[in-house]
Amino acid sequence: MNLRLRIGDLEVNRLGFGAMRVIDNEDIWGEPKDRANALRVLRRAVELGVQLIDTAESYGPRTDEVLIAEALHPYPKGLVIATKGGLARPSPGRWDADCRPEKLKRDLAGSLKRLKLERIDLYQLHTVDPKVPLEDSVGALADMQREGKIRHIGLSNVTVKQLERARKIVPVVSVQNRYSVGDRASEDVLLHCETQGIAFLPWYPLGDGAALRRSKVISVAAKIGATPAQLAIAWLLRKSPVMLPIPGTGNLAHLEENMAAAKLKLGDEDFRSL
């Protein structure tokens, strides 16, 4: 199994890190309770081989990116920081779509400043805003790419039809949709990405934990000497060559556990049984 993946002209290890959870509260709001721990987790992720860290303007909001820069800037060669714009956070419980071109331009400008970058390697539209034509939102990203502020463009939370509408405007190198062993609603999007050579970044790759408590998951994990969470990640890596899981955590032990999943060997029979 190839554990490397090309995203545009970039090549990274196929097990990334979702940085949202280093803000260690349920609403992903404000500062982490333990800032020093958040920085340790980010640094350890890179030590363990992570070459793609996923974040967003809305995490905090505007906190997660600051933590990444504080922990890792100047960034190691080969590290891709992928961030997202297009959500508004008026209060802790709110995640409101706002993909107006002017909002996206503000989001990108802020991300560049917080991440201490002149260009974002992978900038993703966080969602599709029903109030704004998708072509307007993607067109704004294309404009900023032409200005040299974005290297590659990705989409998040999209259907196949929306992906293809966007691809008529600009090359799309990645899609980030919810997907896990227990939630395969985006199967059609994954298969389409596979045929088109587009990277697929499953968010919430361990789900809500329910799938990890299934007897089959527990028994197969025990058989191969893994935890259920490691099995869920190994299953994703085996599922498709364009899959790039981004499990996130604010816990160093969980990070070590998750990253060890890349070394697991999941046989054909066990894979099919899941």
Primary descriptors:
alpha/beta, TIM Barrel, seven-stranded parallel beta sheet, two-stranded antiparallel ribbon, 11 strands, globular
Sequence-ordered SSE layout with sheet pairings:
Blueprint: E1 4-7, E2 10-13, E3 17-18, H1 35-47, E4 52-54, H2 64-72, E5 80-85, E6 87-88, E7 96-97, H3 101-115, E8 120-125, H4 134-146, E9 150-156, H5 160-167, E10 174-176, H6 187-196, E11 199-200, H7 215-224, H8 228-239, H9 252-260, H10 268-273
Parallel strand pairs: 3-4, 4-5, 5-8, 8-9, 9-10, 10-11
Antiparallel strand pairs: 1-2, 6-7
Describe this structure in words.
The protein has 274 residues and is an alpha/beta fold. The chain has a single domain, classed as TIM Barrel, CATH 3.20.20.100. The chain is 38% helix and 15% strand. The protein has a 7-stranded parallel beta sheet, covered by helices on one side. Strands 1-2 form a two-stranded antiparallel sheet. It has a two-stranded antiparallel sheet with strand order 6-7. β9, α5 and β10 form a beta-alpha-beta unit. α1 crosses α2. The radius of gyration is 18 Å and the shape is globular. It starts with a strand and ends with a helix. The mean pLDDT is 97.
Mean pLDDT: 97
Biggest sheet strand order reads: 3-4-5-8-9-10-11
Number of helices: 10
| Backbone CA Rg | 18 Å
CATH architecture field: Alpha-Beta Barrel
Q: Predict the CATH topology.
A: TIM Barrel
Secondary-structure-derived class = alpha/beta
Count of extended strands: 11
Q: What is the total domain count?
A: 1
Estimated helix fraction: 25-40%
- Order of helical and strand elements: EEEHEHEEEHEHEHEHEHHHH
End-to-end distance, in Å?
18 Å
Query: What is the CATH superfamily?
Result: NADP-dependent oxidoreductase domain
Proportion of β residues?
A: 5-15%
Largest sheet: 7 strands, parallel
- The shape is globular
Question: Under the CATH scheme, which class?
Answer: Alpha Beta
Contiguous runs where pLDDT drops below 50 for at least 5 residues: none
